[in-house]
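Next comes one such specimen:
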Amino acid sequence: MKIRSVRAPRGMVGAGNPLAAAEGLAVLRAGGNAFDAAVAAAAVLAVVSPHECGLGGDLLAVVHHAKSGQTFALNSSGRSPGAATVERYPEGMPMTGARSISVPGMVGGWAALLERYGTRSLGSLLSGAIDYAEQGFPAYDDLIENASQRTGSIFADPHCKALFFPNDLRLREGELIRQRAAGQTLRRIAAEGAAGFYRGPVAQSMARTVQAGGGLLDVADLAAFEPLWQEVMDAHFGAHRICTMPPASWATAMLLQLSLMEQEGIAPLADEAQFILQGIRTRRRAYEMLEGCIADPDTVGDQARMVLARHRQGMAAAQAATARQEGMHGTDTSNVIAVDSQGNAVSLLQSVFVPFGSGVLDAQTGVLFNNRMRGFSTRAGDPNCVAPDKRPAQTLTPVLVMKDGQAWLACGSPGGPGQTGTMAQFAARLLFYGQSMAEAIATPRWSKTLVGDFILEDTASEALQQAVLAVEPQIKITPWGSVNYGSIVAVMRDGEGWAGCADTRRNAAMHGF
């Protein structure tokens, strides 16, 4: 497996699509900082990867501002509509359709990131995204294949069907996809800022479309949206401080899994089967320990932080009860990594939840909505139970690793419920074994699917597969590059410059200068 590797002295941008990475690099070259570059790349990503993170998606990020020494988490996931109650969902949360839509948070996240740390205006950074929306971008295999696998939800909406199956035909590789309505929405955002999305004609059109389909989103929900800045969830491993998202993300499970591995003694890398089995075992345990702790932070407070702290202090809580089945955490996401010569660093993930989200496309604005409501449960007493104005649990896991007070590594991966395990495997190989980024990314990995199955890549040797199956016979062997294995994008300090890698399991790319 070939990993795309890059070295550069000044700055670097990686993203889940080459066009987005190139746009971010252009901003760096023009004098923008890492935050500017991340937003420009993220906006292009929202256009050219609509199945992963279109304009109706959410955004989570971990950022480091070198001059102030600040490291923060940005939670720009949308809340549930104010009318959302358990009684409104007597048959549980729908997977797709208008009733699965929460407030889109991504655009507000772009504005919040620039307001705090950027040097360019939001409007000045959207030109690339506008061009790709209005002039078009070429269809590519990952987008085409995802559309072919989601015909049920896509065909249920005539506007979504017209965009991704023009004239009822499957897109051809290289065929231009134009989203003129989305381009006009981006132009309004460029002129008016995030208010142009959350208020006025765009918001009114989005609310009408969702309500026409039986959904609950209204203009008041959109107008009330505000991103949330949070203290990072972090833990020290030797000289390294790993920083990630607090709840409503499950990212704490990554830190807890690494801590459990460290506590019981890291399996020798020479025995890959034991490394995989230890990873699966500690992943299960981490999720059990965090049961009931991952939901809207307004609901669960610092419970996850306390669980992690107790464990790190050698005072782990009593054996947790058997965990209930995990909630639905989405499978389709894309990411941006940006670093600059000042030492600023951004790890950003944005997502519509499952591929093509709700499958609902507002024809007037070009917004393809998320199905993030699926992240809630409807179990009474569950902290993650649906309620008005509440953020659902999710698994977006952006990561920064600090060393000597500086950003040493920025990384992230899509992959739904597999994200925390993927990032734990990657971090363990780098920090505990000293593998290179390319080695750590290329090695066959295990993951977990949306329906709860543990899986192992078929690139693992036959002997390795059999050794793992002998202990965990329920594990399924699935093809390399399957959606839940994700696609790691990572940048690490390299002397006075940077080294980066992009995982070829998906369409990721890395550029530097």
Observations:
- Residues 23-228+353-375 form one domain.
- Residues 315-331 have pLDDT under 50 and may be disordered.
- The longest helix spans residues 272-289.
